[in-house]
Amino acid sequence: MSLLATRNVTKRFGGLTAVNDVSISVEKGQIVGIIGPNGAGKTTLFNCIAGAFPPTTGEILLDGRIVSGKAPYEACGLGIARTFQVVKPFAQKSVLYNVMVGAFATTNSPAKARGQALEVIAFLQLDQKQEILAKSLTLPDRKRLELARALATRPKVLLLDEVMAGLRPSEVAEMIVLIGKIRDSGVTLLIVEHIMQAIMSLSDHIFVLNFGQLIAEGSPNQIANNEEVIKAYLGAAYAVNED
Amino acid sequence: MRTLLTHAPQNKLLLLAALLVAFGLPLVVTSPTYLQILILLFFYAYLTSSWNLVGGFAGVLPLGHSAFVALGAYTSTILYLQYGISPWIGMLVGGVVASTVGIIIGIPTLKLRGAYFALATIAFAEAIRVLIENTDQLGPFKVNGPRGLLINLAGNSFSAYQFTSKVPYYYIILILLLIVLGLTVLLMRSKIGYYLSAGGEDPEAAQSLGVNVAKYKLLAMALSCFFTALAGTFYAQLMLYFYPKSICGLDMSFEIAFIALIGGRGTILGPVLGALLLRPLNEMTRIYLSGTLPGLHLVIFGLVLILVMLYQPRGIQEPLTRLFRRLTGLNKTTVPPAPTKGTVPS
User: Fold this and answer.
1) ipTM of the complex
2) How far is CA B132 from the centre of its chain?
């Protein structure tokens, strides 16, 4: 049984169908990527999984249990953590404070939360900056903080919404290493990303969305050679008929 | 968030000194007039500290807290006048009534952001005031409309919460203030404090981290309303007479918010520092200018507020804390060495 699955998830906003009958599954320990052109419905699917809003129809399953329709804080309690495309640090608070908020998801004791937060901070190499206010961090560090906070909730699945957007190539490379480390620590990851270098090198499995529909899935290699995907990204003229 | 109340020895000394001065003042200040001024100073420090539980930490701006002062005052006074129940018990009943009302009001309004919540609380407080002003009898309870309630003199009686000297009132409000400050410190260092300020700063991010933002805001609201109502009973017993405008007016609601904003919203000492600055200002303008320019103190508050918001948007507690650190040489250690895993400054 897969750790996380969506079953025929559809999300409509009025007349607009942002996600249309999408079923994906994520196996434990994998890094699974979701790609697609702008407006394909990737973030909407994320929001459905993380509980930001319920799917119009369809179900979301974690460990075989239906979790759709739960509030975000409940989803977090069940083991689904997320980061935001536009980072949302608690700007007036220190890095440690930010991460402790996440750590309180699994404990009521400030001492324990602090201990857990410090572990995560060290793991993501933010330990030099733990007393700095989040508002004075650089963008790459804010992205790290976003990761640290989500990881501190000790999730089973971590949803990363474009954590590499806006990073320089060298920073992307660092982030790729970091995400690999997170997977190795036992967290399953579902990532939305536009940077192909990252998604291709990291993912075990990729789902491709276009106009809200799932148009392809497979290993990075299969996806790179998939005609539908090439059409969606580059237009029909570039699709080479291999027969 | 470090404030003056951390564990450096200088801070402990300062805290001890402040406590000694606070407890010793009535030995020096014997004039009832000045004692009354001090009592009202602590009264506002206490009210603002109670307000701070929701207005400071939960990231909303309640501008109708006088309604809860009134709920406290009316509850305990009606219980005393009509049923002979000691105001001490009435005070606690008033607290429970106010926090219940606070929760009922909070459920729909705490979802509102920014100015909309502030406006909703103003509307609520005004509605309560207008309701009381236009009713003599609220069910079985005699509220006496705009004439207000007069508490019969009982001489020096602890059980009637009445004293002929001002000194007991001074100590009562001082102890109430210390209780609410202690609670604030405890809350800020606990999970609740972290969750409250996270939810206040960015509700969406907080929710994604497992924070039930609505629940924690309601909890803060309930606590805040409870303690605010205790101040209502205190006011009633101190003045022995109150009427809707004196206890449920927007003047009082705004003054609480002014003190918090100028002192430092969301900090432990902000409300106390704000009251220390603004209350004497208020009394002075009232004493010297009330004949010619009534209401001038609110104008002055407004000016001070504008200046503070322009130059010290986080209140006067910030420069004062910095000054204190510099004087005691603590500024060198503003970033403490990382403690070992599992330890926490309790």
Assistant:
1) 0.90
2) 23
- Contacts across the A-B interface (CB distance below 8 Å): 94
> What tokens appear for B15 in the block?
């805290």
Q: Write the residue in B189, B205, B341 that is nearest to A118 by C-beta.
A: B341
The alpha carbons of chain B give a radius of gyration, in whole angstroms, of 20
Q: How far apart are CA B262 and CA B309, in angstroms?
A: 8
Give A54-71 pLDDT, tens digit per residue: 999 999 999 989 998 899
Mutation target for B interface from A83, A101, A106: give the one with most B CBs within 10 A: A101
Tens-digit pLDDT profile for residues A147-203 = 999 999 999 999 999 998 889 999 999 999 999 999 999 999 999 988 888 899 999
Nearest to A76 among B208, B338, B346 (CB): B208
Going from the C-alpha of A233 to that of each of A35, A163, A236, B136, B245, the distances in angstroms are: 10, 21, 9, 74, 68
What does the angle CA B210 – CA B213 – CA B219 come to, to the nearest 5 degrees?
120
| Sole residue written with tokens 């309930």 | B222
| pTM for the model | 0.87
Backbone angles phi, psi at B84, to 5 degrees: 70, 20
Residue B208 to residue A110, Cβ atoms within 8 A: no
Pairwise CB contact (< 8 Å): A153 & B189: no
- DSSP labels for B238-265? HHSEE-HHHHHSHHHHHHHHHHHHHH-T
